[in-house]
Automatic annotation (TrEMBL), chain B:
SUPFAM superfamilies given in the database record: P-loop containing nucleoside triphosphate hydrolases (SSF52540)
Family annotation (InterPro entries): AAA+_ATPase, ABC_transporter-like_ATP-bd, ABC_transporter-like_CS, ABC_transporter_ATP-bind, P-loop_NTPase
Taxonomic path: Bacteria, Pseudomonadati, Pseudomonadota, Alphaproteobacteria, Hyphomicrobiales
GO MF term set: ATP binding; ATP hydrolysis activity
Signal peptide range in chain numbering: none
CDD domains noted in UniProt: ABC_NrtD_SsuB_transporters (cd03293)
Pfam family, one: ABC_tran
Source organism of this protein record: Microvirga vignae
Keywords, in A-Z order: ATP-binding, Nucleotide-binding, Transport
Listed name of the protein: ABC transporter
From TrEMBL, chain C:
Pfam family, one: BPD_transp_1
An annotated GO BP: transmembrane transport
Keyword Glycoprotein: no
Protein name: ABC transporter permease
The keyword Ion transport is annotated on this UniProt entry: no
Cellular-component GO terms for this entry: plasma membrane
InterPro entries: MetI-like, MetI-like_sf
Entries under PROSITE patterns matching the protein: ABC_TM1 (PS50928)
Location of the protein in the cell: Cell membrane
Species assigned in the record: Microvirga vignae
CDD domains cross-referenced by the UniProt entry: TM_PBP2
Organism phylogeny: Bacteria, Pseudomonadati, Pseudomonadota, Alphaproteobacteria, Hyphomicrobiales
Swiss-Prot/TrEMBL keywords: Cell membrane, Membrane, Transmembrane, Transmembrane helix, Transport
Amino acid sequence: MMASSQANTQVDGPVRAVHSPAGRGLGLGRLFTSHPVAARVVSLGLFFLVWEIAGRVPISYAFPTFLDTFYAFGAMLLDGSLFVAYGSTLQPLIIGIVISAVVGVGLGIVMGLSRKAEWLVAPLFIVLQSAPMAALIPLITFVYGIGLLAKTLAVIMLALPVIVLNGYKAVRNANPSLVAMCRSFQGTRMQQITKIIIPDASPVIFAGLRLGLAAGFIGVILAELLITPTGIGDLITYHRSVANYAEMYAAVVSIILVSTLTLAALEAFEIRVLRPEKKRG
Amino acid sequence: MTAPSASILGVPHAESDIAVEVRSICKYYSEVEALRMIDLDFPRGKLTTLLGPSGCGKTTLLKIIAGLVEPTSGEVRVNGKAVTGPGPERAFVFQDFALMPWATVMRNVAFGLELKGMGKAERQSIARHYISEVGLTGFEEKYPHELSGGMRQRVGLARAFAVDAEVLLLDEPFSAVDEQNRRKFQEDLLQLVEKERKTFIFVTHSIEEAVYVSDRIVLLSRRPSRVAQIIEPKIDRTASPDAIRRDQGYLDTVEEIWQGLKHYVD
Amino acid sequence: MTLYGYRVPMMASLLVWCLVWELVGQSGLMFLVPPLSSVLVAGVAMVQTGTWQSAAWVTLHSFVIGMALAIVVGISLGVLMGRFRAVDELFSIWVNIFVSAPLSALVPVLMILFGIGETTVIVTVFLFAVWIIVLDTRAGIQHVPSSLIEMGRCYGASPFALYGKIVLLAALPEILAGIRLGLVRGVKGVVIGQLLVAIIGYGELFELYSRSFDMENFWALTIILFAAAMLMSAAIEYIEKKVDYYAGVR
């Protein structure tokens, strides 16, 4: 989670390899690079096989086989209902994420730079970040009805805290050695912020945007399931109510697929553009 | 062992020969006294080393000279002018290199000039010169993570040379560089000192390194740090590097410093 | 921040926000936001009712069972993935997908598989919490220096002792971090699960109060929930700090 410790490697100890070991955990982006293709295919195939067998048994009357779900998915693609649903789901998601990104990154940077802003705002977002904001979603309906605005607000409520906190932590923890370097070459405060602090913080800020997007997906689906029967959430609820379980599963799988692919693409972009030092990691 | 602080061994220097004067510097970190009444002169065009046991505050003193750290009391003067912060006549080389991981070698070396607002073509041609000076020609478009520790510190050195400061402050520049590269680097540094005619202030905890590269060695005592002794190694610098490392004067000086520092080691 | 030379603790600014809440509530500008003071009064009355107590009990029950499952399964799977490459390759793609997937979409599926009741909520808590515990445990296990394991072997540690006395303890800082993040996610899971199931525990009360516009009780419920989530995460953080001292020197 923390910015790469590349720049402040150990000081007195023995010198280690130049390339820092690959970051902890497996990122989604690395999903497609660090493991041999074969392992991934086997892993996916095994899962689908187990699903298929469990569906054939069947373990529950409401558990379609993998192939049924796959055909349902194809049918929904062809009749266009998936596209209509995604249009309705992605629109508030994108608007909400863009608003959260602008507000959140700005607020995070201000908090990272100013002790006063940090004191006033940081605790609020620390609370909001670890608290179950989903509890407040039912409230939105009262004020903003069940339209686009309500869904957008649900996205912002869930996405904003993590974006703000990442931006704030990234700026606050900007490599002090680089800041000192900039000062030693008589960089102005403005140069320090634009040329050192923000570039140094940008990978973590971007990671915050990714986490915010993941939270936004949860928010928009939740809003659609709870308060506004539209989009993918409606597709899930509708097919469930008429016992079209294969279609219902297909809708659920599709939203997980879409969010996974979007997040993976973002992470690949992040590694390619923002972290030249990790490109070959 | 505790010689009077302000003493300068050898021939007294004329005022203009002193590049940096440190006057009664004291530094407290909250309750902890790091430096006590440090008085030192750094002669122009020489390489002076601050040497002392770990944690004795030699880096703090260097950062005070750089203007990165405020002294609790006392004053630093560079060319007679009091230091209030970092200035263009001083350049700093960092222990951890302080290279921007998102920038190429070229941009890192030219960074000091970029901050001054110099045009791109001009600063790049200056940077290119110093990149070749430190032996990194061909690596201009590489990123720091693609370089070894030794090469990274060469980038740090080139960046400091590029701003054409009179005084270069080097904070344990080789401590994160492996042994073989360090030796090569020390030899190259001596040639650069010869060629660039700048005033170098060098912090290290390696006795051999201090004796090998320095014109003068300032021994600092343990915290609270004071100037314990000033030594001018009598070594023939025109000899080959290998000859210097076997020179009797070199070996005697190393031994003398070790005898002086030994009782600080637990 | 310092004010007139005194250090003002950071969390003190929450009092400022409470004051803002009170003022907004008193002004009556938004009917959704009653004054904080009346929310607190309502909260004190609410916790004494049998309804709240049984709701809290049901919620806590699902949460504890779901979390216990998530911790046991998460640590076991994390250890296996950290030590055996085959297990790692088999599961890593799924763990990485589910750790950031919108699991709220899965709850309707759980509802038809496990019924509209407590089991669904328990499974939701489990699914929200388990993946991050797996990932952090795996990272912790992989960061155990091999010299420490070799040391254990040299001095004749049995495989059981090797794991019990060396590997798990060395990975403890990461495992605890995973559990803390898992708890935060688990709280979100229990709330989302109960909101969607809507007939048990806190979810039922949320549904009840928001439908009847009983904002004092709604916010009192929210404050108790937020406070519980914060306290839990603070408690784990405290334990984490206790083992943090050796995270740096392993």
